[in-house]
Amino acid sequence: MTDVPGTTSTRRRLLVAISHPDDEMGCAGTIAAHHARGDHVTLLWLTRGEMTHAFAQLAPDEVRARRTEHGQGAAALLGAEPRFMDFLDTRVEATPDAARAVARVIADVRPDAVLTWGAAWSRGMRHPDHQATGQIVRDAVTLARLDRIVQPAAPHRSPVPVFTLRGRHSTLPARAVDVHEHLDAALALQRYYHERVGWPEEDWLKDRLRRAGEPYGLAAAEVFDAWETEPGIGTTLF
């Protein structure tokens, strides 16, 4: 499936719901692509990332404040709206209350699609917070449809297809987003985080995007699990 002609001029809303500031490195080109198209992108972090080893010498509250600033700066670079929740780093749990809290955010943002963590099992992607965040957000998409959950906001009952960051062993349909034209934005974010937390390396990011694109004949790509849509190649998620 390729992009449907005539849809690129419609401003739509994408919610990217992840665990920690810098998780968005896995989808920076896609966020930039949606911003370039005129879509509204909300970047939602469930935690402030206070357990990072980059600032192990600082008190958690100080790290929390610094990482909040990092997320705000990253969102500005990508043209996204930053939002934070107050789950504790390394202690995110997929509970009914957690799903209800995120459902209320979804009802407020009213996205046309959601991008979050999936059920991947490679190093880094299998972080317990990532696994829990993906489950919470997927549950919240359904709960956001219910008046009694999201009041006083109106329920969000429009279709909200879910996309997740793809692990190497996934068997779900894949959506490959061509991010070649947005490589500069992804590299700007790479430099931003490398200066602040020492990660990631530029060569690592370039290689990751190149290798992701190769099976699809693309110079650079980010690939996601498409839980409710057809697989294929596009310049954005939808």
Question: Can you describe this structure?
Answer:
The chain has 238 residues and is of the alpha/beta class. The chain has one domain: LmbE-like (Rossmann fold), CATH 3.40.50. The protein has 7 helices and 8 strands. It has helices spanning 28-37, 60-78, 96-109, 128-143, 147-150, 183-197, 202-213; strands spanning 13-18, 40-45, 81-84, 113-116, 162-165, 174-178, 221-226, 232-234. An 8-stranded mixed beta sheet has the order 3-2-1-4-5-7-6-8, with helices on both faces. Helix 2 runs antiparallel to helix 6 (183-197) and helix 3 packs across helix 4 (128-143). The longest helix is centred in the first third of the chain and has 19 residues, at 60-78. The chain is globular.
Provide the residue-averaged pLDDT.
Answer: 95
Strand content: 15-25%
Shape: globular
Unreliable spans: 1-8
Helix content: 25-40%
Number of helices: 7
Specify the CATH class.
Alpha Beta
Secondary-structure topology with pairs:
Blueprint: E1 13-18, H1 28-37, E2 40-45, H2 60-78, E3 81-84, H3 96-109, E4 113-116, H4 128-143, H5 147-150, E5 162-165, E6 174-178, H6 183-197, H7 202-213, E7 221-226, E8 232-234
Parallel strand pairs: 1-2, 1-4, 2-3, 4-5, 6-8
Antiparallel strand pairs: 5-7, 6-7
Features:
38% helix; Rossmann fold; alpha/beta; disordered N terminus; 7 helices
Question: Outline of this structure?
Answer:
The protein has 238 residues and is α/β, with parallel strands linked by helices.
